[in-house]
Amino acid sequence: MAELLSLKEAVARLVRDGDTVALEGFTHLIPVAAGHEIIRQRRTGLTLVRMTPDIVYDQLIGAGCASKLIFSWGGNPGVGSLHRFRDAVQHAWPVPLEIEEHSHAGMANRYVAGASGLPFAVLRGYTGTDLPSRTDTIKPITCPFTGERLAAVPALNPDVTIVHAQRADRSGTVQVWGITGVQKEAVLAAKRSLVTVEEIVDELEPRPGAIVLPSWAVTAVAEVPGGAKPSYAAGYYERDNDAYQAWDEIGRDRESFTRWLDELTGVKA
Amino acid sequence: MTEYTSDEMMSVAAARALGDGMSCFVGIGLPSTAANLARRGHAPNLTLIYESGCLGAKPTRLPLSIGDGELADTADAVVSVPEVFNYWLQPGRIDVGFLGAAQLDKFGNINTTVIGPDYTDPRVRLPGAGGAPEIAASCREVFVVLRQSTRTFVEKVDFVTSFGHGTGKGDRERLGLPGAGPTLVVTDLGLLRPDPGTAELTLTELHPGVEVGQVVEATGWKLKVSGDLGVTPAPTEAELRILRDLKRASA
Fold it and tell me: Do A239 and B69 touch (CB under 8 A)?
């Protein structure tokens, strides 16, 4: 059964230095508040996993929490580059960042394998690209039935997966709707999981297209209203596109980023 | 005649390439602008598929990201990300993949990963692959839209993120890639198509007022020009109105 915890306590108990941590949410329902709590608790040496590292990963990387990033697309959607990510890859600032890069199809299938309890997934992907020569976790495999050459990618099994959802009931059963991305697979693939939710309710009313994560498949639930901002939560609030645009300026240089970081962590200038 | 910019010409030309009733896997940015312009104009039955899992999205404004709420709210179905790639893209159900690029080479190979010769010490680190490698592999054909310059149109890409025609005609077949690969490249200067014999991108149409020399200048390889060079019709009043309305609604 999922435990209902505060965000602070949940991160303190579930996320440890050196862990492999996935924060998922495909544009929608990005667990930003949880990412900020990881920064506040000064976790280091994390292997961060995420299909689409965007501004919260830029912040985690800039804050020096990560030593490795496993991903398929790292950018500020519709705006441009992630400057902290670039600075880490190009100049090892504030710490060196190892990267392991895939395509979306590869990452999605890695989570599916992880959730399925299989060692790897197979897909028709990466053919002819330079990715297999740079990424050890892409290998060719021959179909034993047809002889077709396909790509194999190993399962992703994070130590912790964190996702954000619209709501949970008091037993910790989670309901999520709208664009659900890879959240279900990422939670089921992980050893431990934390779901932050907009609200905890007495009873979950059925919603069209909603998926349910049963309480016994989740480690902890924390009520964090607005916990996905500046991304959005369908039914609660819209995406704050201005904040994504504003991040471009803040993240662009080390000084303005450091000011932002000091404000988040409560360090007096 | 209404004045228009070269970017508007590019979006209009890209939109026209999409036929009514087609299904299109849409990349964000320029491809999304073109696909939405097509759907609001001559191709009302164009099915837009976004990698966030939105099948049949009908946005009224241009999304900033591939996962804007507007896309989910207006979609025929919203599926998970593993599903959109495994069940919808991979089996070859989608007609056109519409992609952008940071670098494109003369055989239509796309780079969105790193600029510079050394992957481990890149001059510029770009966002990476996203959905593009499998979109370029599995859609029946691929259209690419990007602004043309010697910076973007290079002899050979620094990194093959998404495979076009490799080193020439026959490479896709040899690798067993199911789709036809890039069949059209739309830029702010004109249209390029792979030569039927060599698969090398060749200038086939100029936008109105553009000279061949300008396009040659803006290309990082010795650009071949079709013997049957055409001129793109200028944007119509209606096309410009729809495009500007979309942009205004998104601002």
Answer: yes
